[in-house]
Amino acid sequence: MTRDAFMRELEYLLQDVQDDEKEEALQYYRDYFDEAGPENEEQVIREFGSPERVAAIIRSDLAGNLEEGGAFTESGYTDERFRDPGYQVAHRYDLPESAGGKAAGQTGESGESGKKAEPRTSRLLKIVLVLVLLALALPVAWGIGQGLWGLAGCILALLIVLLVFLGLVTVGFLIAGVIMIPWGIVMAFASPWSGLVVFGSGLALAGLGLLGLALSVLFYGRFVPFVIRGIADCLNRFFHKNRRDEV
Predict the structure, then answer these.
(1) Which residue has the higher pLDDT, 164 or 93?
(2) Is the pLDDT of residue 78 over 60?
(3) Between the CA of residue 4 and those of 26, 48, 89, 219, what are the distances in Å?
(4) Which of 8, 13, 29, 212 sits CB 3.0–4.6 Å from 170 for a disulfide?
(5) Whole-angstrom Cα distance, residue 48 to residue 204?
(6) Can you tell me the distance from the alpha carbon of 213 to that of 86, in angstroms, rounded to the nearest whole number?
(7) Phi-psi region for residue 66, left (φ > 0), alpha (ψ -120 to 50) or beta?
(8) Region entry Disordered: which residue ranges (predicted)?
(9) Are 205 and 173 in contact (CB under 8 A)?
C-alpha cells in the first residue's frame, strides 16, 4: 500500500468525524510521512498498521478513551490495546452512508435519533395544520350554523302566521255562512230578492269555509310535518358532516 492509498483509506474511514478534528488528525499523519521521506513510506505504513487501526486510534482519542494507556512515539501513537491485528474498530460498514446488512445495527445513535425525529416532526406539523384549519373553519361553520338557524326560524314564523291566518279565515267563512243562510231565508219573505242575495252569499261563504277546512287539514296534516322533517334532516346532515370532518 502506498502513502496516497493509505491516506485516502484513512480519510474515507473518518468521514463521520467532524471536519476540523478529521483534518487535524490527517495532517498529523501527512506531516509524519513528510518527515520520514518517500524512501521510508513502506516502513512507516508497517509501523502504523492498517488504516482501520489508525482510524480506531483516532476515534478513541476523540472519544477520550486513550487516557487508560498508550503514548505518542516516533511512529505515532502506540497503545498495547491496538497491537492485536484483529482489533479493527472502524470498518467500512461502520460509516453511516454504507448500505451493508450490518449498517443498520452499527450506525450511531445520532442517525437513529434523526430517523425517529422525522415522524415526530411530521406528526407535529399535522397537528398544527389541523389546529389552524379548525381555527379558520370554526367562524365559517358558526356563521353557516347561525344562518341556517335564522332561516329555520323565519320559515317557522311564516308557517305559524299561515296557520293562524288560514284558521281564522276558515272559521270566519264558516260562521258567516251559518249566520247568513238562515237570515237570507227569513229575509226572503219580506224581500225575495234581498233574501236570495243574502242566502246565496251565505252559501258561498259556507262553501269557502268548507274549502278552507279541507285545505287546513292538508296544510296542517301534510305540509307542516313535511317542512319540519325537511328542516330537521338538513340540520342533521350539516352537523353530522361537521363531526366527520373534525374526526
Answers:
(1) 164
(2) no
(3) 12, 14, 22, 101
(4) 212
(5) 126
(6) 108
(7) alpha
(8) 97-117
(9) yes
